């Protein structure tokens, strides 16, 4: 597994997906509604990439219809604290990290 942060995170959508999962377990439809403008393919690709990199867990329930939920792994939860620390850098004037300000819920 590549340890490069960008390769682990993946697409530009990943931060927005992570923002939602930082608040708790979500289903595919909930994520699609919450992440404005993401296509089903982009969401699927991002979720698969993060699952492959052990950032999230995909849990399938054998119901009709099938219920699938996504939640963060311990590694994914660790990203929350890292990104929060980066956001503090934004608040302290680090202009290179300004993009993060819109990716994290206000705490």
Describe the structure in your own words:
The chain is α+β, with helices and mostly antiparallel strands and 107 residues long. It has helices at 5-9, 13-21, 28-34, 40-52, 74-91; strands spanning 26-27, 56-61, 67-72. It has 5 helices and 3 strands, in the order H-H-E-H-H-E-E-H. A 3-stranded antiparallel sheet has the order 1-3-2. Strand 2 (56-61) and strand 3 (67-72) form a beta hairpin. The longest helix is centred in the C-terminal third of the chain and has 18 residues, at 74-91. The radius of gyration is 14 Å and the shape is globular. The mean pLDDT is 82.
Q: How many beta-strand runs? A: 3
Strand proportion: 5-15%
Question: What global shape is seen?
Answer: globular
Poorly predicted regions are none
Radius of gyration: 14 Å
Relative helix content: 40-55%
Could you give the order of the helices and strands? HHEHHEEH
| Gap from first CA to last CA | 32 Å
Mean pLDDT: 82
Query: Taking strands numbered 1, 2, ... along the chain, how are they ordered across the largest sheet?
Result: 1-3-2
* Number of helices, counting only DSSP H or I runs of 4 residues or more: 5
| Biggest β-sheet description | 3 strands, antiparallel
Question: Helix/strand/pairing class, anyone?
Answer: alpha+beta
